[in-house]
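Hi V.,

Quick status before I head out on leave. The structure for the redesign project is tokenized and pasted below; the design run finished overnight.
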């Protein structure tokens, strides 16, 4: 059984899963790594490239579950996106609702694992 972390700063999580939207999946993000650089900022790499940066807020909800909210600078070419995630550390599952300008954009369903923080690739 895994436990929530007090903080994500200094960690990297690899996410693998599917996005569901009116436009279908976002295959370039089916596997990506989020590196939590500080207690409030992170960077995202996929296919060996830096694909994004975001502010985030992480809050453990006991020993099993945590909430995670991201405010990416740009997400799928859009500004004004917020991602609301729910992490289950027992099952290592992540589910998220992604909104754009306060309207549903997509949902995400996947698994995650702790990985070594990759070297910062070029954009």
């Amino acid at each position: 059984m895994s436990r929530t972390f007090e903080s994500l700063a200094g960690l990297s999580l690899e996410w693998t899963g599917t996005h569901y939207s009116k436009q279908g999946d976002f295959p370039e993000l089916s596997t990506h790594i989020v590196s939590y650089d500080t207690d409030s900022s992170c960077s995202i790499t996929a296919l060996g490239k830096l694909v994004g940066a975001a502010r985030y807020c992480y809050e453990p909800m006991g020993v099993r579950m945590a909430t995670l909210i991201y405010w990416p600078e740009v997400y799928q070419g859009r500004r004004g996106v917020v991602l609301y995630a729910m992490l289950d550390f027992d099952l290592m599952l992540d589910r998220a609702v992604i909104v754009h300008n306060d309207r549903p954009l997509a949902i995400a369903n996947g698994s995650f694992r702790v990985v070594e923080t990759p070297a910062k690739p070029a954009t």
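Above is the designed sequence. The radius of gyration is 13 Å.

G. will cover questions while I'm gone.

Best,
W.
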